[in-house]
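Human: We require from you a standard protein entry with sequence in single-letter code and fold as tokens, and nothing else.

Assistant:
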Amino acid sequence: MRLYLVQHGEARREEEDPSRPLTEGGRIEVERVAEFLARAGVKVDRILHSGRLRAAQTAEILARHLRPSKGVEGAEGLDPLADPSIWAGRLREVDEDLMIVGHLPHLAKLASLLTFGNPEPQIIEFRYGGVVCLERKASGSWSILWIIRPDIIPSR
């Protein structure tokens, strides 16, 4: 099983717009990442997001390119300050390739908990629109396969 953890794209500041939609730059970066992932042959069965506008918009852009067979939907427990052990537990029961679009610090804590067994040491430096690919082995342990950041993908 592969798990793709995605930090939402850059969003407007709360003072500008309390709903915090993606900025134009955020949309462009997520679009570039989505195109890159599709060209690389990344396949996901489902994309889940926190339900917040910036995460939902990021998920929709990714879905347009990756075409998840089971669609896109909001999910509980993916807010910035959510307990990462909730999703660590849920993922034990998941067999499909899954993409989760969320927020910091939750994503960083979840990645650390899955790979290191402790949510506190920050082992991955997330970036807006970045993707971390983890793989669960048959033993149940997780490893990091790759990380992609928008700033390393060449503009087309």
In short: The two ends are 31 Å apart (CA to CA). DSSP finds four helices and six strands in the chain.
